[in-house]
Amino acid sequence: MMKIVAFLLIPFAASAAADGDAFFRERVEPILRQRCYECHSHAGKIKGGLVLDSRSGWQSGGESGPALVSGSLEKSLIIKAVHYGTPDLEMPPKAKLPESEIAILEQWVATGAHDPREAVVAVTKKAGIDVEAGRKHWAYQPVREPALPAVRDSSWPLNDVDVFILAKLEGAGVKPNAEADAHTWLRRVTFDLTGLPPTEAEIAAFVTDRSPQSHERVVDRLLESRAYGERWARHWLDLVGYAEQIGTEGKIFAEHAWRYRDYLVDAFQTDKPFDRFIREQIAGDLLPAASPQERRTNLIATGFIVLGDVDINAIDKLKMEYDFVDSQVSKVGTAFLGMTLGCVRCHDHKFDAIGQQDYYALAGMFRSTKTTFKTRHGIWSNVNRVALPELEEDRAVAAKHEQKLADWRKEKEMLEADLTALGDKADDAAKKRREE
After folding, report:
1. Residues 93, 211: one domain?
2. 100-112 pLDDT, tens per residue?
3. Which of 119, 229, 237, 416 pairs with 105 at a CA distance of 20 to 30 A?
C-alpha cells in the first residue's frame, strides 16, 4: 500500500521540493499543530520523549527511535503510526487521521521531509527524582560501627551500649540511676519480652536466687516462652496488615488466617534465622522441603503475600488485581526493607528511593504469581488456596474426631431408642386407661 502511494507521489516531488517552505507551513505544520502538539511539543506534554515542534525533535526521535526517515515511508514511524497498521503504534490515539491528511504527511516524507524551522530546540527529558541522591540519605546507608565516646566513669558501663548512654548523661550533667532491685528488674524484663507481669512464683524464685546466672536464666526462660512469640509476632502482624477478614466492604472471614499467625508466633519463639524467615514468606512454596512438616510450614508462611484487608469486590477485575499486587509490593517494602513503596507506583518520588522501573520489575514478579481467583458469577474474587501436606498427627486427630463422632452417634441412637421406648410405654398406659 505504502509503496504504491510512494510511487504515485514521485511526480509531485519536484514541485514540493521547489516550494518546500510553503508546503510545510501551509499543509504539514497545521496537521502537526492540531493533531500532535498536545502530546509531543515543548508547550504541551512530551510523551515517549518525542517532540514534533522542532526539526531537531523528529530527527532525534523519542524512546522508539527517529520519528521519520527522510525519503522513506517504510522506515518512518510517524507514517506507520498514522496508518494504524500496528496495534501498539497508533497515532493520534483518539482517532485515525483523515486519508487526506495522511496523504499530505506521506508526500512530505517522500519528498525529503523539508522543515524550515531553523531553531534547534534541544530535546530535554522531563526532570524526575534523583534516585541515587535519595539513596544517600542516612537511612539507606550501611550500618557502621562508630567509635566509642570517652566517659569519665569507666566502671559503670557493662557493655558498649552503656558507654553511649553514659556519655549522653555525663554531657547533660546527669548521673545514672542506681541499679534496680531484683523485683523491679524482673518486672521490667518480663513486661519487655512478654508484655505480661511476672507471676508470684516467678518473683519468689528470682528474688531468692543468688547465683551469678540468675538474670541469664530469666532471660532465656522468657525468650523460650510462648508469650514472647505472641508479643513480638504482633508487631509483625501490624507490618503485614494482618486481618482475619478479606475485603474492605463485604467482609469475608479468612478462615485459614490463623495458620499464618501461629507460624509467626512459632518463628519468634524458636528464633528462626531471619534470612530463612524472609525466604519462607516471599517464596515458601518454591523452597525444597525435607519433610511434609517443613513443606507445610513453607506453604503457610506464604500467607504473608495474600493476607490483609484487601479489596476483592470490584467490577474492574484488572484494576483490582493490580491493586492487590501493589499491596504485596508495599508489604515487602515495609516489612523487609523498612521503606514505603507506594508513591513510586505512579511516579518517581523522593520518599521511595527506587525508580518506577524497579517498582514494576518487582510488581511483575507478584503479578505472575497466582494469589487470587475469580468466582464464576458476579464481581467477587477470593484468595488462592493450596492444600497442605497431611501429617501423621493430623491423621491421629482426624481418627480421634471420627471416634468421637461415632460415640456421639451411638449415644444418639441409644437416646432415640430410649425415647421411643418411653413413648411406647406412655401409649400403652394411655390405651389401658381408655379400656378401663
Report:
1. no
2. 888 988 888 888 8
3. 119
